[in-house]
Design goal:
about 180 residues, alpha/beta, six-stranded parallel sheet, globular
């Protein structure tokens, strides 16, 4: 197995926040499910990552009950790790790197919530670690930040990642 799909923070914690009403694509589960099904059909590893802030008392605290995959997502199957992270990227506070090395993965396809934050940060670190990275823009979403719309943030993220940290792709190109 040389490729893995990393599904980052597509979790109920975000839907539980008031900002969910401002999210660019509230139906993010649909393109993510398409990627998951395609990855499984190709025999690629699927890794699920959830953001958790233990003891915070907020929606990212596992005690809140919101640190779970969005209800409409396909469920992980046997052999698909579900990791909890407490940093923005999916590597620093998990054993993701070890799992990828053990599985012989050299290429990562990344998608998820907070295009410019957790997904972009994971893509950048993965590139620095030597992985070939595919950033699937239409399988990410975010809310507006700093006066920028979700679409503007996605466009900015594509621009700064393209040809430096990742190849930019769409779900249709990959499935």
């Amino acid at each position: 197995m040389s490729r893995a799909l990393i599904v980052i923070d597509v979790q109920e914690s975000f839907r539980a926040r008031p900002e969910w009403d401002l999210i660019g694509n509230p139906k993010i589960a649909e393109p993510v499910n398409r990627l998951v099904r395609a990855a499984r059909s190709k025999g690629d590893l699927v890794v699920w990552v959830l953001h958790a802030e233990e003891g915070s008392g907020g929606v990212f605290d596992p005690a809140s009950g919101h640190v779970t995959l969005l209800a409409e997502l396909d469920r992980p199957v046997a052999g698909e790790p579900v990791l909890r992270k407490s940093a923005h990227n999916a590597f620093t506070t998990t054993n993701l790197q070890q799992r990828l090395v053990e599985a012989g993965v050299r290429e990562l396809v990344v998608c998820g919530i907070r295009t410019e934050q957790c997904v972009e940060t994971t893509a950048r670190l993965a590139s620095d670690l030597g992985y070939q990275v595919v950033f699937v823009s239409d399988a990410t979403t975010t809310e507006g930040v700093g006066g920028f719309s979700p679409d503007e943030i996605v466009a900015r993220t594509e621009a700064v990642l393209r040809d430096r940290f990742a190849r930019i792709a769409t779900v249709s190109e990959l499935v």
